Amino acid sequence: MANNTKEEPKSAPQSDRWYNLTLGPSFKNDSSNKFCTLRYEFKPASIDKTKAGSLHKTKENRVSVEFHNNQLGKPKVTFEGSSEEYKENDAVLFFDGESFRLERLHRAVKQLRHLRKPGESAAAAAAAASSAPPAAAAAVEPRLSPVAKGGAKPAQPQAHLSKPAFQAVPVSF
């Protein structure tokens, strides 16, 4: 019997033992279960892992992912990337402590880049506090990290980030 709790198993599968393996509902053509992977270029420690985040996808396959910040008063931790379909033979294997379940992967969200916001880093906060009043510091434009090399201008966030084309989907770590 499979363990129906949503907790992560306390142990890994044991060696030299056979486990039941089932195909999950995502393998059925009419299934509403969809699985995707997220690949981050950088994931800051400031993400609050105790709270669910949200994911926004546009018709142009651009994806934004937001998480709460674990530092009080700091802005949400935001990422932007692109989405593409997996091949039909790509899957993910889940272990619930007693058995395995294979689920088909549908989308890959790649190149999730951390979108920095004003005052997010300690260096930016110190510079803003010493050289400009708080109102001027809030006017600084957000930019993608890491900063572009060779003096190139960093990419600016797209306007669609503040107006998602689709409803947010909960994401958790």
TrEMBL record:
Transmembrane segments: none annotated. One of its GO terms (cellular component) is super elongation complex. Pfam families: EAF. Residues 19-118 form the Transcription elongation factor Eaf N-terminal domain. InterPro entries: EAF_fam, Tscrpt_elong_fac_Eaf_N. Keywords: Activator, Nucleus, Transcription, Transcription regulation. GO terms for biological process: transcription elongation by RNA polymerase II. One of its GO terms (molecular function) is transcription elongation factor activity. Residues 123-173 are annotated as: Disordered. Its main location: nucleus. It comes from the Eukaryota. Belongs to the EAF family. This is Ell-associated factor eaf. It comes from Quercus suber. The lineage of its organism: Eukaryota, Viridiplantae, Streptophyta, Embryophyta, Tracheophyta.
